[in-house]
Design brief:
Mean pLDDT of chain B: 96
Mean pLDDT of chain A: 97
Helix content of chain B: 25-40%
Low-confidence stretches of chain B: none
Number of strands of chain A: 5
Structural class of chain B: alpha+beta
Number of helices of chain B: 20
CATH topology of the largest domain in chain A: Ubiquitin-like (UB roll)
Strand content of chain A: 15-25%
Distance between the termini of chain B: 73 Å
Number of helices of chain A: 5
Strand order of the largest sheet of chain B: 3-5-1-12-9-10-11
CATH architecture of the largest domain in chain A: Roll
CATH class of the largest domain in chain B: Alpha Beta
Low-confidence stretches of chain A: none
Distance between the termini of chain A: 48 Å
Radius of gyration of chain B: 27 Å
Oligomer: heterodimer
Strand order of the largest sheet of chain A: 2-1-5-3-4
Shape of chain A: globular
Shape of chain B: globular
Number of domains of chain A: 2
CATH class of the largest domain in chain A: Alpha Beta
Structural class of chain A: alpha+beta
Strand content of chain B: 15-25%
Order of helices and strands of chain A: EEHEEEHHHH
Number of domains of chain B: 3
Largest sheet of chain B: 7 strands, mixed
CATH superfamily of the largest domain in chain B: Aldehyde oxidase/xanthine dehydrogenase, molybdopterin binding domain
Chain lengths: 156, 790
């Protein structure tokens, strides 16, 4: 069965007709060609597909596209202001918080929620906030540093 | 010009990854592409009685269905193994056929039987579900030790007893004699747990065929596109190599698992021609668990002999290594030439004997995973040394010191076929002990005890052979490939430089490190350098990235090409300045004539090279573009000392890694920030192996740990406080003096963690615990020990 849906993605209105089973992550990647949102597992545990829906971070593989009808969606592609990186993106670059880059979009989107209203997150806040995101490259050490710096920069 | 080598330069590749502009294989769509889904065996061992493709073909959107019989009819060959191991008595290993799609027998859960190609991924999935395979299920065996037992199910008819090879290294007689005469012999039996690599980007491949030029293109998640092209063209599809392009774009982590030539790569390339459309396959995670080559899986018995002062007099090791159902690309070399050759560790043990039996089982093929053989060797050596220290009542640091190869003994020839060029093991251990405040450990142990916790400390002094090469040695040991690296350095007329490297970056930051190296050597701004990798049509040749070889071998190839550029530049500069080339010097981007004030920048020389209005063409060729192959004289030998402190909660069995100190000697560093990042990641994977990760098969070959719900990897919460430092003895035989840093963390860490854990548990009478040391195992060990004592 097909459904006509509309939503705002990165500030842009989009409409499409999708199958019922289309996941938000498939809609973003296949319909909108926003391939910055990645798929790293099929059990909602890696967090590579994390985006924001109505201001909250969600794993886009756990939502159907039709559930997002009328929603505001923010993906990694919508963070930078032109060529100016968002402070959290810049913090990941400054602190070498990424290596292969595959988990990075999801990691940054989760980090934004950690930093939301908390400009000085503790190690525990970060561990909790990133509990749903796997990174196999960095050993997380520099991700901690990046999230702290990014949160501070966002708070100032 | 500002110098960049040694600087913590921020990575140039980050911009695209941080903004979602990275281009991974699954992000690519080709015009008219179809989607492939593989039909895989749910059984560990079965005869294929029949395959009925009709129901799949009837599904709307299905374009084609191909089976092993279709590939066989086209003359498609099997997936080759790149390394021949010769066993005892000159008996070569047995290499059973490995068809990309099984024809008559399936040998592990996940073995591919057919491929369904459709207009959409969902249609292909529906088709794969509809396809009917009639299996005659056979008994299976998952454990390598059980597979060697009499009457065990046979994986391949041509491999009686399932033993692929029975291999040995070293002087058995001398070792047996030393053990007999020893003051003390420590024995240690261990299992090195099987791991699943789990790069976060699942594998993917897109095949294309262009009939206009009879050209094939494979886009794939590979660490070494040229190797894939060679293996696929020459052995599997038997197509001319120059008609095939292999592209490995941004790749989301590899850790070894993306070295190998996999069946899916050959199938999509072959099917693209057959179906007349591009064919794209993307693994899902469940499929990755079943089909990405696994790592480790050793069962080992070891004996270390000592004299009364604790000097090691011999080491004897017997290992059974699980190969899985087929020989993956480099599988045979891992438990032999990358394992047994490292059993000397950092020590002067005079005689060593290793015996390795490689065994087929009904499980996923096993091959290189970060460290590949060297973590297994380090685990044997560094665990048995720690146990020996406890048995001898000696401080583990002191026992190591007593046995270290001394700085004045290099080059040092070990009894297991390697010659270490340089090192200073005492220096890294001293620094690690200082940094970790080892001297005050007992105070921290008492503090933990007051809080009801058990604290332990463990050391691990690892060594690895990296920069996998040289070709002559590799060839003598059975490698069927050369192990060098290639590079091309090309100036554009306006003075910018493109470096084409055969190394491949899948997280290592080559676009930054290689640019730093190139900019300094040429004396040009770093932003004028572009690093190009991952495309057989653009790169002259390449052996790829694995074995921590990119900087030591790939970087050295770039340096060699740069040296040729400078020689050519001197000739051009001499011509321009009307001087003799022998009188021209080059330094920091400027060609100058000795004893004069005449000089030209390399930019001016490059421009002239492409605008050669007055070149004497019989003496001087236009252009400034040089390529080089670099084949080193030896492996490199990174080494270091790790100190781990853990705290165990005896009520829950939880083991928390509290402090981790790593002092590594990687030789000269180009970008310390990137190097530290490599070590962080390696240590995390080492902690994963020690405490969390364990691949489990049921006795009949079902993968029990087949998803992230069953297979635990480190998350942010599992990471300790790190202390880092480096000691430096530059590699003596490459122009950079670099040794490689990619695998050290994964190699040195598991022994450090388990040494610390068993130190913590000693007070409760627990002297060993197998990896992964989960809270359940630790709690059971503590309580079992308590019960036994009562």
């Amino acid at each position: 069965m097909s459904h006509a849906i509309s939503m705002t993605v990165n500030g842009r209105s989009v409409s499409a007709t999708v199958e019922s089973r289309t996941l938000l992550t498939e809609f973003l990647r296949d319909n909108l060609r926003l391939t910055g949102t990645h798929v790293g597992c099929d059990t909602s545990q890696c967090g590579a597909c994390t985006v924001h829906v109505n201001g909250k971070s969600v794993k886009s593989c756990t939502m159907l596209a039709v559930q997002c009808d009328g929603a505001e969606v923010l993906t990694i592609e919508g963070l930078a202001n032109g060529e100016d990186l968002h402070p959290m993106q810049k913090a990941f670059n400054d602190h070498h918080g990424l290596q292969c880059g595959f988990c990075t979009p999801g990691m940054v989107m989760s980090a934004l929620e950690v930093a939301d209203g908390n400009s000085d997150p503790s190690d525990e806040d970060i561990a909790k906030g990133l509990a749903g995101n796997y990174c196999r490259c960095t050993g997380y050490e520099n991700i901690y540093r990046a999230v702290k710096a990014g949160a501070k920069a966002m708070g100032s | 010009m500002a110098k960049h080598v040694g600087e913590r330069m921020k990575r140039v590749e980050d911009g695209r990854f941080l903004t979602g502009r990275g281009t991974y294989t699954d992000d690519i769509s080709k015009p008219g592409q179809t989607y492939a889904v593989f039909v895989r065996s749910p059984h560990a061992h079965a005869k294929i009685k029949s395959v009925n493709t009709e129901p799949a073909l009837a599904v709307e959107g299905v374009v084609a269905v191909y089976t092993g019989a279709d590939m066989a009819a086209d003359g498609v060959g099997g997936l080759p193994c790149g390394w021949q191991v010769i066993g005892k008595g000159g008996t070569p290993m047995i290499e059973p056929a490995h068809p990309p799609l099984a024809t008559d027998t399936v040998r592990y859960v996940g073995d591919a039987v057919a491929v369904v190609i459709a207009e959409t991924r969902n249609a292909a999935k529906d088709g794969a579900e509809a396809l009917e395979v009639d299996y005659d299920v056979q008994p299976a065996v998952a454990s390598a030790v059980k597979a060697m037992e009499k009457g065990a199910p046979q994986v391949h008819d041509e491999v009686p007893g399932n033993v692929c090879y029975d291999w040995e290294l070293g002087d058995k007689e001398a070792v047996d004699k030393a053990i007999e005469e020893a003051h003390h012999v420590t024995t240690f039996d261990l299992v090195n747990n099987r791991l699943i690599p789990n790069a976060i980007e699942p594998r993917a491949a897109i095949g294309e065929y262009d009939p206009a030029g009879d050209n094939y293109t494979l886009t794939t998640t590979s660490q070494n596109p040229h190797v894939i092209r060679l293996l696929m063209c020459a052995f599997v599809l038997q197509i001319p190599e120059h008609k095939c392009r292999v592209v490995a774009p941004d790749v989301g982590g590899g850790f070894g698992s993306k070295i190998f030539h996999y069946a899916e790569e050959a199938v999509v390339t072959w099917a693209a021609k057959k179906a007349g459309r591009p064919v794209k396959w993307t693994s899902d995670r469940s499929e990755a668990f079943l089909t990405d080559a696994h790592g480790r899986d050793h069962v080992t018995k070891a004996q270390l002999a000592m004299d009364k002062d604790g000097k090691f007099t011999a080491l004897k090791v017997a290992t059974v290594a699980n190969m899985g159902a087929y020989l993956s690309t480099f599988a045979s070399s891992i438990p032999t030439y990358l394992y047994a050759t490292l059993l000397a560790g950092q020590y002067t043990t005079p005689v060593i004997y290793a015996e390795v039996k490689a065994v087929f089982t009904h499980t996923t093929p096993v091959d290189a995973y970060r460290g590949a053989g060297r973590p297994e060797a380090t685990y044997v050596v560094e665990r048995i040394v720690e146990i020996a220290a406890r048995e001898m009542g000696m401080d583990p640091a002191e026992l190591r010191r007593k046995n270290f190869i001394q700085p004045d003994q290099f080059p040092y020839e070990t009894p297991v076929a390697l010659t270490y060029d340089t090192g200073n093991y005492q220096a890294s251990l001293d620094r690690a002990l200082e940094l970790s405040d080892y001297a005050n450990f007992e105070k921290r142990r008492e503090e933990s005890a007051r809080n009801g916790k058990l604290r332990g400390v463990g050391l691990s002094c690892y060594i690895e052979a990296c920069g996998i090469a040289p070709s002559a040695v590799a060839g003598a040991l059975g490698a069927r490939a050369g192990l060098y690296e290639a590079a091309e350095v090309r100036f554009a007329p306006t003075g910018t430089v493109s470096v084409f490297t055969g190394s491949h970056s899948h997280g290592q930051g080559h676009e930054t490190t290689f640019a730093q190296l190139t900019a300094d050597r040429l004396g040009i701004p770093v932003e004028n350098v572009d690093i190009v990798h991952g495309d057989t049509d653009r790169i002259p040749f390449g052996m790829g990235t694995y074995g921590s070889r990119s900087l030591a071998v790939g970087g050295s190839a770039i340096v060699k090409a740069i040296d040729k550029i400078i020689v050519k530049g001197k000739k051009i500069a001499a011509h321009m300045m009307e001087e003799n080339a022998d009188d021209v010097d080059f330094d920091d981007g400027v060609f100058s004539v000795k004893g004069t004030n005449k000089s030209l920048t390399i930019g001016e020389v490059a421009f002239q090279a492409y605008v050669p209005h007055n070149f004497p063409h019989d003496e001087l060729e236009p252009g400034l573009d040089e390529s080089a192959f670099y084949d080193p004289n030896n492996f490199t030998y990174p080494a270091g000392a790790y100190v781990c402190e853990v705290e165990v909660d005896p009520d829950t069995g939880e083991c928390h890694v509290d402090k981790f100190t790593a002092v590594d000697d990687f030789g000269n560093l180009i970008n310390p920030m990137i190097v530290e990042g490599q070590v962080h990641g390696g240590i995390a994977q080492g902690i994963g192996q020690a405490l969390l990760e364990g691949c489990v098969y049921s006795d009949d070959g079902q993968l029990v740990t087949g998803s992230y719900m069953d297979y635990a990897m480190p998350r942010a919460e599992h990471i300790p406080d790190y202390n880092f430092d480096f000691t430096t003895t530059p590699c003596t035989h490459n122009p950079i003096g670099a040794k490689g840093c990619g695998e050290a963390g994964a190699i040195g860490t598991p022994a450090a963690v388990i040494n610390a854990l068993t130190d913590a548990l000693r007070v409760a009478g627990v002297d060993n615990i197998e990896m992964p040391a989960t809270p359940l195992k630790i709690w059971q060990a503590l309580n079992g020990a308590k019960q036994a004592a009562e």
